[in-house]
Every structure is written in C-alpha cells, then in structure tokens.
Amino acid sequence: MSAIAEPTGVAKTPTSNPSKSRRSMAWLGILPFLIFALLFLILPTLNIVVGAFQNPAGEFTFENIQKLLQPSILASYWISIKISVASAFLGCLIGFAIAAAIVLGGLPAWVRSPIMTFSGVASNFAGVPLAFAFLATLGRLGLVTVLLREGFGINIYAYGFNILSFWGLTLTYLFFQIPLMILIITPALDGLKREWREAAAILGANGFQYWSMVALPILWPALLGTFALLFANAFGAVATAYALTGSSLSIVPIVLFAQIRGDVLQDPHLGYALAFGMIVVTIIANTLYLWMRARSERWVKS
Fold this sequence. Notes:
Number of domains: 1
Order of helices and strands: HHHHHHHHHHHH
Mean pLDDT: 85
Shape: globular
Strand content: under 5%
GO cellular component, one term: plasma membrane
Transmembrane segments: 26-53, 74-107, 127-148, 160-188, 208-232, 239-260, 272-292
Subcellular location: Cell membrane
Keywords: Cell membrane, Membrane, Transmembrane, Transmembrane helix, Transport
Number of strands: 0
Helix content: over 70%
Organism: Thiothrix eikelboomii
Oligomer: single chain
CATH class: Mainly Alpha
C-alpha cells in the first residue's frame, strides 16, 4: 500500500512549548510573596516617604524634614547610632570568635550543628519575649542578679549596671546580634582554602602573619559588610527597646512611636519624617553590606 503524501502548501500547526509553559506557571509560586511584599513593605514605605513631605493639609512641604534638626531628635538619632555601633561591633567580635572556633578551631564535628541551629533560632528571637527574658534574668529582681547578690555578695546595680540603660539595651541586642554574625561569617570562614595557609607556612609565615596578611584581608569585606548589616539590624529594632526601656531611653524608634501614637507629642508627619530618616540610614547600611558581600564572594571564588 502506497504512502499518502502530505499535501504541500499547508501550514503546520505550531506545537506548544512545554518549558515556556512551566516558566509561566512558576510565577504563580512567588505570587504570594509578591503580594505580601507589596502590601506590607513597598506600599507602607511609599506612604512613609510621601507623608514625610506633607503637612496635615496634604500639601508638599520640607518642614517635617527640617524638624529632624531639632537638638532632641538629633540626640535620639545619636543614641540609636551609638547603640547600633556598640552592639554591631561586639556582635561581630564575639560572633567571629565563636565561628572561628567551630570552623577552624578543631572542635568536634557534632558541636557545629547545635550551635548553628541555636543561632538560627536566636537571631530571630526579639521583641517583647526577649525583653521579658532579660528583665527576668538581669532585672533588679532577676535570677542572675539575685544569685550574684545573695550567693557571692555582688550587687551589679550598686556598681552602676542598669538593664534600662545604654549598656543594658546593648547587652540585650547582643542576644540576636551574635547568632546573626555566626550565621553570616561561617560560610566565609568555610571559604578559606587550606592551600593558602599551607603556602603561607611554606614561605615561613607563622599563625599571626597568616591571619594578618592573608586571612583577614580576604575576610575584611565580609566582616565590614556583616558589621553594616548588624548595625542596620539594631538601628531598626523597636519592639525590644520599647518593651525593655519604655520611654526611659529616647532612641529613634521610641521617639517615632511617641509621635505617631502618643497623646501629647502626636505629630504623625514628623513621625513619617523620623521613619524616613531611619529608612535612609538603613538603606545606606544594607547597600554597604551587599557591596562588601559581593567583593568577599569574588575573593573566595578566585
């Protein structure tokens, strides 16, 4: 039986592209995230930026931005910056020591897993629960305070310590700053190649020379970037500070809260301006972190 020839001049029906269809369907997977980011991040941020340049009548003005130059508001920014710098520096220092110990210190392999698990949990433990935990531990009637006073005769409050002070809030922030540092710097320490240390040893370098001339210069972008991220993390924290200190420590988030929700100091548009200033500082810190992380990744991959 002869085969029937396909008629010429008839256009073929295009077949669908499965890969293109899968790509189009894949967008549905991130749709909830996009909606969430739009409703709870992008639109509120735009509302803050617009409100910072409006007066109560809805007219454009720079008056709210000019109010940020008031001495009391500048002082609140300065206190927030000092707390953020102190907690970021101590968090980087202590977190780096812990990460170096578990990655390069020759500790047993089973130690790393619980430390990383705890760091993942503790880095997200903040707000009212964290404030309550520190009050119950280091408050005037806290567990550690009472044990030191009754068991060892040491009254930390008699020596000037106060959980509701600058150093008290800084110490509280370290609970989530140190674990965050461990999570971020551990991959960078893992990226240090054994060949670099062996080459340095062959050339006669001791441990101090290896760290000062090889390891730290390679890790320096990652360390600076993580410091910037920890700074932004502390600068934007509000729930922990408000629950712990109330209005006794005038940092920017607490002043902002008073302007938006307060009965006496209520000025929502000044609150928007305060939030806008915080956004600018946070953007600068996060941009520095992303830039430094990109440089660190290029170093490690090279």
